[in-house]
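3.2 Worked example (two chains)
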Amino acid sequence: MATALRVLARGRVAAKACVSSQQVRFLNLHEYQAKQLMADNGINVQRFVTVDVADEAEGAAQSLRDTKPCKEFVMKAQIFAGGRGKGTFENGFKGGVQLSTDPAEIGAMAKQMLGYKLVTKQTPPDGVLVQKLTVAEALDIERETYFAILMDRDSNGPVMVGSPDGGVDIEEVAESNPDSILKVPVDIAEGIQDAQVDKMATHLQFEGEQKASAMTQMKQLYDLFLKIDSTQVEINPFAVTPDGQVVCFDAKIGFDDNAFFRQKEIFEQADTSEDDPREVAAGALGLNYIGMDGNIGCLVNGAGLAMATMDIIKLYGGEPANFLDCGGGVTPEGVTAAFKIISSDPQVKAILVNIFGGIVNCATVANGIVTACKEIGLELPLVVRLEGTNVDAAKQILADSGLPIISADDLDDAAQKAVATMA
């Protein structure tokens, strides 16, 4: 069970915890996007409307009521951070989740939410700008359960995970009541079986018509999981309303980034407005970039070498400012773009280039370095260590450039020289 939960946790923090030798797209979908995916595939979710203009919120609420009787509405700020309900907007308005029975009040509150930053325990100190709201039919919840489908390495395929204790973090349940969590591996070749779904629904304490509805939706969620190349579909809570409906109230969906080529429509929904703009720019160029807190910028080819470079900078008393892997297909244009991204960080006081030319031609990198330095007028100290294919030609290109480039013989020498520029 612990392994499946670790996989679940990894899915949530992968964007910061995983580093790959290929550019990856750690796609996050907003709540409304995940719910729309489910609704489009026949899965029960609350009726909702998404708005990005405050004046549309009242009309959205009224349209829900006109379509079907609706006693109360719930309006939610669409940001990636948790704790929205207890958050505070920069204008003093409290709560990124609001309830009301009056469409006019929904409209008035929307004007206090859209276009303002919301601060929660999970946002940066200055908050995150709210650009979209969902206005949904508010449903009472009689009982909450937890249900998820995720990829589990130990099981070599999908696993259903469920607990009758829903509405709270599953990690907390795993610590306080691990016996309540059921894990059911699914043979991806055979597909999900009725007996497996029945076992899970029984564990979640569904009975009668509710059990039949829950089983149907579990199968639909599994079909969606496969259809969209997901790594995780988490429903929390997977709940029952007082009138007996089984509804997916909230969802987190993770994606296999290697399936980008066949899930382009989904990946095009990516909202990068909350991401580091440097990471977004790097991703568009096929570069792996992760910003850090140090002052020595790094440009390296290969994830392993990049990690080693950061380690040795710290060994000699420095602090890396970033992870940047330019990959094996680096071009002079890519090097120039990488220099622009690195030098845009005001914390960076020096740059260390560490290239091992196997697939990469060192001369190509050297030409890129010279072009970049001249194009952006680089004034920061620059230490360059090159080794491998065409290294002698590359070193000659740097020497002939007339630029104040500090050459290094090996990685130790490069790190020490980069740190020395901080003195």
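3.2.1 Second chain
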Amino acid sequence: MGRASQPSASNSDDHISRDGLFYMALLALQFGFQPILNKEFLSREANKTVVVLVSEITKFFVAAFIVYFINGNARTEFKGWTLRDSLKTAGLPAVIYSVQNILMLTGYNQLDGLTLNLINQTKTIFTAIAVYLVLNKKQSPAQCLALVGMFGASVLLASSGSGKSQGAAEYHAWLFGGVIPVFAASILSGVASAITQRNLQRHNRSSYLFSMELAVYSSIAMIARVLVSGNELSAIAVKGPFYSFPLTTMAPILLQSCGGIIVGLVVKHAGGVRKGFSILAGILLTGLIDNVVAGNPLTTAKLLALPLVLVSTYVHITRPYRAPVEKPKTN
């Protein structure tokens, strides 16, 4: 969940430094392995609110470690910081991201890694819509066509789910316990991204400080959720907060926390457009791991949706909207 405010590399510069290539490879690996590790190490019985809470606390300490011990510019980061300004900037996005994380954890229980990553790419659609509504940032015709392609891929996957071959009950669980939660999480991701972009334009923040703020407010939201939910509070009282939460659960949580930091490093050393290429490589890696290691078959729907998502994502990141150049007036 990293937001990079550091100077980004020029997207038009064809040269990529060794550091840029290294961080791009790390991001591809993180994106590719994340759904696999989540599926493997996150138990269905684990309390999802506790998982999100531990994840947010981990993100806070990762970002704080970088600010204090690696960058060594904590004073600069917190100069002029106020609680009121912080709440205006990160409060609402933090609540939205908290709900999104709960929905994504729900989807991990039902979907294989490739299907989840492909459907999750629809967040590009909702980000584009939300950014247009909030910031009036337009999409080019090619980008609009790419968004249609992404939506078509998600519909294809949803209508040709693996649960259909197992019976109505399994398909119902696959659709309503997997596809729809991830789809809803993608919508929330788009809304939160637009609000975040608007807020960061108004209030100067580094990616690490903003990550720390999001983590604090998301943690508060999760604790409040437990306190107001009688059923969840009772379950924690009976089973304990870390029921079905072995130490291996920290593997995907740590990977996700580091992923946000890697995104910022890719944008800084390789540029925002090339970050999209790392995501493309990650999707391909997820498909390979999902098929070879996890043994999930590449169904017809996946074989059709995979290239559709890859091409659509490529077009969307390489064909941005360019404002028409006004012709000089002649007397």
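3.3 Remarks
Confidence is low (pLDDT under 50) at residues 1-14.
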